[in-house]
Amino acid sequence: MLRLTRPGKVGTESLSMKRGRNGFSLIELLIVVAIILIIAAIAIPNLLRSRMQANEASAAASIHGINTAEVSYSSTFPTVGFSPSLIALGDGGTSPCAGTSTAACYLDQNLQNGTKSGYVFTYVPDASSTPSNQYTLNADPITRGITGQRSFYSSAANITRFNVSAAAGSADAPLQ
User: In angstroms, rounded to a whole number, what is the distance separating the alpha carbons of residues 72 and 43?
Assistant: First the structure.
């Protein structure tokens, strides 16, 4: 086997080629890590903001769902009026759901228990009359600024209102 090499460069050329292929230098690794950290610093706040907006959209949709369930409940059980609790709008822990005034089968299990997508739902029925003809509903983030920013409010009037800094009430601006 014939091997061709340049005169005066015997063995050094193949040695330098092998050195370059052994791995990355420390500087190259640090540059790659720095680029990854910069990308993460840009992406993570956007991801958290997107998740918070998704939780808020879910809370607003859940309020709408509860309002619709209340209208259906009061139509189905006119002697009761609006439901006495969120649990009565759900399955009541029974399977299969019975479809009674204590387990109407209108809400999913998470919502009937009062939490969903980073929000806590507080339902207050008006027990002063029979049949019940009023209720109020609040949805507040579990941790404001992390699971959601806005709080929501609704009532038997079926208008969803919001507040950015505190629990929402009947005087706050309606959602558009």
Answer: 43
